[in-house]
Amino acid sequence: MRLPSLFTLFCALTYCALSTSTHAQSREVNGIAAKVNGRVITKNEVGFLLNPIYNQLRAQYPRLGNEFNAKLNEARDKILNEMIDREIILDEYKQMGAYIPDQAVENEVRNQINRLYAGDKAKFNEELRRSRLTMNGYRQMQKERMIVQAMRQSQFDDAAPPLPNELINEYNKIKNDLRDVSKDSITFHKIFIPANDLRDPNITRETQLALAEDLVKDIKSGKDIAELAKVHSKDAFADQGGHQKDVARLDLSAEFAAIIFDAKEGDVIGPLSDESGFTIVKPLEIKLGPVPSFSEVRNTLEERVRRQKTSVQYEDWIEKRRKRAIIDIKL
Question: Residue 200: phi, psi to the nearest 5?
């Protein structure tokens, strides 16, 4: 059983008529997700932004199923709605000559690569190619998003300034999200179950998934993951009970890292799925990278608090413009 691609899932979720022909796949890849006042939002753009979420959900839900589809649908709809609002605001302000410095855009692109792809620029570029997006196209997407943020801020710049305690509370709430994730590391026990064994045709991806699920139940019921790893794990660390110390976040796949570093020490995670098989992880010690100082992110904090204070005003404002806009959703 080969894991489905994002293209396959994306088409299934949008009720596409799938075909194995090159022509049909090309047509869907270049399809229209929505039009806003005549301006096109492509499926490529939506799919590219959705892909990191899809990869993480695919890892978390090896059997896919209803919960996987519901979460993927929710993420897709959120992305599309945000892109529709972006187009409405850009259309509203296109005559204002809004300007975002190129260096600011470059910094944001770098932040996105660090956050979504754990700093792996090669994987980011691979996803660009798969989505048929260019780097310049991605930069333009980020620039437009930043313009929308600036326009929203200017629209409600009469909001009451953030109070010191509000900024401190916001800092404490989000500082870990702003940390240097490239410095994250983790110590854990791991069991790896390969997807199949060419020497035994009775061993399939389905039987291996069932084995991994049974092992998770055993560990949660109190059995020692280290002993189970010595018996069942098929990697270089099996003899050590699957114990690995101070593994850098950048040495893990971005989707696995996003799941594992969001867990608590002692949690049993998995089975996580990828093309090679199924992974079970029990974190023993999680070390997070350094967080920026309050002064370094003060501007970000002020913007976030202002947005929270003006969220009701903004929703009223954007809703009126949604009603005036000509929106044609194709998904």
Answer: -135, 105
CATH of 6-157+310-329 given 1.10.4030.10, 1.10.8.60, 1.20.920.10, 3.40.50.720: 1.10.4030.10
Give the helix/strand (H/E) hosting 274.
Answer: strand 269-274
- State the CATH architecture for 181-287: Roll (3.10)
Pick the closest to residue 147 from 189, 197, 90, 224 (CA basis).
90
Give the highest mean pLDDT range of 45-59, 101-115, 148-162, 214-228: 214-228
Tokens of 264: 């608590």
154 CB-near residues (< 8 Å, 6+ apart): none
Q: Fill in the amino acid letter for 313.
A: Q
pLDDT recorded at residue 155: 67
Q: Looking at residue 97, what is its pLDDT?
A: 60
Q: Which residue in this structure is represented by tokens 């009720």?
A: 15
| Closest to 248 in 3D by CA, of 177, 180, 182, 178 | 182
Judge whether 6-157+310-329 and 181-287 match in fold.
no
- Give the helix/strand (H/E) hosting 194: strand 185-194
Q: Do 331 and 33 contact (CB within 8 A), yes or no? A: yes
Q: Where are the domains of the chain?
A: 6-157+310-329, 160-177+292-309, 181-287
3-state SS assignment for residue 99 = coil
pTM given for the model: 0.74
> Residue type at 213?
E
Cis peptide bond N-terminal to 283, omega within 30: no
Which residues are CB-contacts of 35 (< 8 A; sequence separation ≥ 6)? 41, 326, 327, 328, 330
Whether 187 and 246 have beta carbons less than 8 Å apart is answered as: yes
| Beta carbons of 100 and 143 less than 8 angstroms apart | yes
